[in-house]
Amino acid sequence: MLYQINLEQFTKTHLRELEILLTCASSQPESEKIDLLKSLLQNPINWQILLKLANRHRVMPLVYTSLSPLSESIPPAAFKQLTLDFRLNSRHNLLLSGELLKLLLLLEKEGIKSLPFKGATLAALAYGNCSLRQFSDLDILIREKDIEKAKAVLLSQGYRMKIERIQLTSEQEETFLRSRDIYHFVREAAYPFVHPQSHLVIELHWAIMPKYFSFCLETEDFWETLESVSISGQEVPTLSPERTLFALIGHGTKDCWRQLSRIADIAYLIRNHPQLNWDQILQQAQHHRVQRMLGLGLSLASELLGIDLPENIQQQLSRDPSLKTLLPGVYQQLFEPPVSSISDGTQTRFHLQVREHIGDRLNYFFQVATTPTTSDWLMLPLSEFPQLPYYFLRPYRLVREQIVKALEKHRN
To answer: Which InterPro entries does the record associate with it (predicted)?
Structure first.
């Protein structure tokens, strides 16, 4: 057994299927995986459930590549479906990779410095193979000053801006698209674009992590210390493995570690980059006061997917007793069907728990409570506006929503 936990503590359903899923997603040598899978496949398996879990957790390519050598032990219909899913994902990844190279060239011609992250570049950096990771869109980071120029490039290629989280009238949408400053209110620090013909989705970011999350990755030397990775035979800029690890920790924490793929990305990045500068990683975690977030992400990769961590890192993890409190809740979210949502406060409570300093908790709470979003802009939808009034509108809107919820609950 690769994982160091008892699954029955956290779920009573689909135990055998989860055991296979974790084994396939693990970063252990293939020979060890095959031996374990041979043993697991001797039991009755609900293949429909296993395939559903593989896609829910976005680790289907890892499940396919791990089970392929044992195809004779798998029902033909199940293996056929798994093979089809893998081929469709590989073709989609190739399409996205080609589109990425085209867009990077167009942005460069306009004098816009850009950095792809997640998506194809993460697949190449962490797995060494773009077909081994499931990703549905492209994430491109640009400098804040280049937002409008980059937006124009995407629009010139037939992409349309996708406005999320709010419902707009045609007049409001026109006002939104015309505004040069609305990006200040976009919660996730990214404009999503979708192409009406190819249905490809591009997310244009001006920060790797959103402002409200208080997890800054862009330091002064950020744009001068990039590395490169090969995609379809071409070198493209990317984050260093150390900075990539922090990006993965940040995004996994923000999403409450609800998908196994978030943990697999960390495990494979560590496995395929044995030269990681752990001293630098620990120093940066201490400097930015995200040691608990780092510890939680590394603990998940170690306990669930069998990644070997250096001795000094293991000692560091053992010094934070709060990890033993946080891990069971994460496992519950992973192994049981999702029952919580953003609106019920579960996500905010988790975000507060993973911060070890009271000052950081207060800062996070303050940022969430006061930083305006597009929902606040919708109360006073202007194309050109002073930002200050919206900092007062947001607390007013949040309080009003809570009062309305309380009254509705009382009536019921």
So the answer is: NTP_transf_5
Are the CB atoms for 14 and 53 separated by under 8 Å?
A: yes
Q: Which CATH number fits domain 7-159+195-339: 3.10.310.10, 3.90.1300.10, 2.60.40.10, 3.30.460.40?
A: 3.30.460.40
Distance (Å, whole) CA 348 – CA 371: 15
Helix (H) or strand (E) holding 141: strand 138-142
Q: Are 185 and 373 in contact (CB under 8 A)?
A: yes
Among residues 125, 120, 152, the alpha carbon closest in space to that of 139 is found at 120
Which mean pLDDT values do the consecutive 10-residue runs of the chain (412 residues) have?
Answer: 74 89 92 93 94 96 97 96 97 96 97 95 95 95 96 96 90 93 93 95 95 83 89 94 96 95 97 95 91 96 93 88 91 77 74 92 89 91 90 88 79 72
Q: Is the dihedral of CA 35, 55, 5, 26 positive or negative?
A: positive
